[in-house]
Amino acid sequence: MTLLIRKSVQVDSQQWDERYSGTEFEWTMEPNQFVAAELAGLPPGRALDLAAGEGRNSVWLAERGWRVTAVDFSRVGLEKGRELSEARGLDQAKVDWVVADLRDYEPGRGGYDLVLIAYFQAGPQTRAGVMARAAAALVPGGTAFVVGHDLTNLADGVGGPQDPEVLYTPAAVSAELTGLRIVRAERVQRIVNREGGPAVAIDTLVRAVREA
User: Fold this and answer.
1) How many CB atoms lie within 10 A of CB 42?
2) CA–CA dist 174, 162 (Å, integer)
3) Which CATH number is 1-105 given?
4) Could you tell me which residues come within 8 angstroms of residue 21 by beta carbon, excluding any fewer than 6 positions away?
């Protein structure tokens, strides 16, 4: 499937194109551990993966029967996701790969059973707009799932952005998912392998639903 381009993407997409340009995947071809743990039991429907990167979570969802719209401003990242889906033998109609900047992207309102946002690290104003549009994109009964680097990771964890402006807290993300009922909002720990041995990274995890 060819990549669908929506609106103009911002200049900083070039940085991510360069980062994703290697032959290896930047992180892994497997889904994020929290995505797999929290979403495996959901019945498949229509999913929206915002800031999809190299598509690992989108492909994982598609393998479980979801019809996925994967959105990112890196054309290179999404191309790697498309290639991964082909390598896994997926029907290419299962995932729409959409090149778009989330600052501009407007998903259809009330069109998705699941909206996933994993490690979209942006300033508060940008993030709040993306979260609000994500919440509005859910059907009644739909699930929003957000995971990202937590503010406390600066002092108590390892890795991730070092700018506090782009880091999450459970309270902030919960407040930005307007109109949804918060099911889970907490800090979670993730083991990271480093040269000196395993270390702990701290993430914000929020799961919410739009009431039926």
Assistant:
1) 16
2) 22
3) 3.40.50.150
4) 76
204's CB contacts (< 8 A; 6+ apart) are: 146, 147, 148, 149, 150, 151, 168, 169, 170, 173, 185, 186, 187, 188
Question: What is the pTM for the complete model shown?
Answer: 0.90
| Residue found under tokens 């994993």 | 118
Express each pLDDT in 80-131 by its tens digit: 999 999 999 999 899 999 999 999 999 999 999 999 999 999 999 999 999 9
Of the candidates 117, 23, 127, which has an alpha carbon nearest to the alpha carbon of residue 70?
A: 117
So where are the chain's domains? 1-105
Neighbouring residues of 155: CB distance < 8 A, sequence distance ≥ 6: none
